[in-house]
Amino acid sequence: MDAGLSGLLLLLCALPWAQGAKVLVFPMEGSHWLSMRDFSRELHARGHQIVVLAPEVTLHIKGEDFFTLKTFPFPSTQEEYQQNLLGNAKKAFETQGFVEVFFENLAALRNVSELYANSCAGLLHNETLIQQLNSSFFDVVLTDPVFPCGAVLAKYLQIPAVFFLRSIPCDIDSEATQCPNPSSYIPRLLTTHSDHMSFLQRVKNMLYPLPLKYFCHISFTPYESLASELLQREVSLVEVLSHASVWLFRGDFVFDYPRPIMPNMVFIGGINCANRKPLHQEVRHRAAA
Ligand SMILES: *[C@@H]1O[C@H](CO)[C@@H](O)[C@H](O)[C@H]1NC(C)=O
Ligand SMILES: *[C@@H]1O[C@H](CO)[C@@H](O)[C@H](O)[C@H]1NC(C)=O
Ligand SMILES: *[C@@H]1O[C@H](CO)[C@@H](O)[C@H](O)[C@H]1NC(C)=O
């Protein structure tokens, strides 16, 4: 058989796959889901088959005609969950001092992340559900790593992962993609520094992320334990997240200070503007000034 013909045959064999992949979407709750929903709708419109995996109890994730919704148990009722989330949001605005806000949020974060981690453990330990997912032969898992359950699942089932996120705290993305991330040049969250820092600013730049590191430790450790248990060896979150083939960031260097990135990190901030509205008059004046 000549090369042209075998090439054509290969193309024909590949076509059905190229036309429609099986995509397992594992979203993060709340506003995170809104742009992922638009993205999933577009994937569906392009002929891909979408299954959305979500907890039974959510604020925004509801069944729709462009995907199949698969749910797993969540250890809280809708009322409790809403109260928990909304109560916490209110507190964040009520309290004044930084230290107060920090400890208030810490308690709240502990609460909510425990709920999420427990639901994730329930999912990953549910053999029936895992077998169903495994035998569905998904081509890719599309997930927001801020809720790392989807990333753990993708690694466990050995399915390629595409991450879709605004950001993930504690520079875990830089670590997982092995990007250079020196704190002497890269301004940290909330410091309002630029890449030109005095000595004292660099010190502040190194200290600011520390409380956040503690947040991350609390919220992410359960997923490391889960991954280690399932894969039967010590696995860090960084290793779980380094499984991603592509990182799609819903951001842009217009909002965030530029930083070194790897070729599999793509900025798609424009996707947040799917529902455009004209700028407010005042904003337009300021932009023009
Ligand atoms: C944590 O959850 C418990 C039970 O759901 C609730 O009573 C408590 O107020 C919550 N704490 C915070 C700080 O949200
Ligand atoms: C496991 O998953 C199946 C299928 O989604 C579900 O019907 C069942 O209730 C789950 N079992 C537990 C113990 O959560
Ligand atoms: C998924 O199925 C494959 C066989 O197709 C099997 O080798 C693998 O162990 C299964 N993975 C899990 C996590 O059950």
Q: What can you tell me about this protein's structure?
A:
With 289 residues, the protein is α/β, with parallel strands linked by helices. The chain has one domain (2-9, 19-273): Glycogen Phosphorylase B (Rossmann fold, 3-Layer(aba) Sandwich), CATH 3.40.50.2000. The protein contains 11 helices and 7 strands. The chain has helices at 3-19, 32-45, 78-94, 98-125, 127-134, 149-156, 172-177, 199-207, 209-231, 237-241, 281-288, and strands spanning 22-26, 49-55, 68-72, 140-143, 161-165, 244-249, 265-267. It has a 7-stranded parallel β-sheet with strand order 3-2-1-4-5-6-7, sandwiched between helices. The longest helix has 28 residues, at 98-125. The radius of gyration is 21 Å and the shape is globular. The termini are far apart. Residues 7-17 have low confidence and may be disordered. It binds 2-acetamido-2-deoxy-beta-D-glucopyranose (3 copies). Keywords: Glycoprotein, Glycosyltransferase, Membrane, Signal, Transferase, Transmembrane, Transmembrane helix.
Q: What is the level 1 CATH name?
A: Alpha Beta
Supply the number of helical segments. 11
Instruction: Report the CATH superfamily.
Output: Glycogen Phosphorylase B
Per DSSP E runs of 2 or more residues, the count of β-strands stands at 7
Main location: membrane
Protein name: glucuronosyltransferase
EC number: 2.4.1.17
GO molecular function, one term: glucuronosyltransferase activity
